[in-house]
Every structure is written in C-alpha cells, then in structure tokens.
Specification:
DPY30 domain-containing protein 2, Sdc1/DPY30, DYDC-like_DD
Amino acid sequence: MDAVFLRKHIGECLSTCLAEVAEKRPQDPIEYIGQWLHNYIKNQKYLKEKSLEDKKLNDERAEFELEEKRKAAMASEAEQFSKIEAEAKQVEESNKTTDDNSTSKLPTLEEGDEPKSSPSAEKE
C-alpha cells in the first residue's frame, strides 16, 4: 500500500534524484536528496503557476480578439447606418428641391378668398 503511494506520487522524481546522487556521489547524500526534493517541489510549483499564467494569458488574448471583432462589427454597422442616413437625407433633399421646382408661383387661394363672381359667369 505504501509502495503504491510512493510510486504514484514521488516515484519518478525520487528515481531521478537517486540517479543523480549515484552519478555525483556527494559527501552527504541525505542532505543532497533533501535539497534536491525541496528544489524539485519549488520547480513544480513554478511550472504550475507558469502554466496557469499561460492559460490565463491565452484566455485574455482570446477575449481581446473577440472584443476587437465586436468593435469592428460595431464600427461596420455604424458606417452602414451613416450611409443609409446620408442616402435618406440626400433623397429627402432631392424630393424637397423637386417639390420646390414643381410648385407654381401663384398664391394658393382658399374657398373664402375666391371672388364671388367670375368674369365668365357675368357674360352668360
């Protein structure tokens, strides 16, 4: 039971450490193993933190790219709306100028303003 736990959790790093001890043959191998394991843990924490930072950075980069796409889409829509408004304004102005050109120069008369007898009616 204990051997399974050791193999599962520290087997790989301990075998690497013992291989290094056999290769280097330090004066105090137990202290060397302790320092090596301490540095191994510190390096593993660093790698884990770096991995989390990389993941966070990638997430932020993806979010930034998505936001840039949204901004580009909004700018495109705003440009389309401004073109539509400009066309509508141009059509309105052209209609206004054609209305101004087609109206007669004579003043409009309302029913109450018309003369009671017309010259053609007197001849009959």
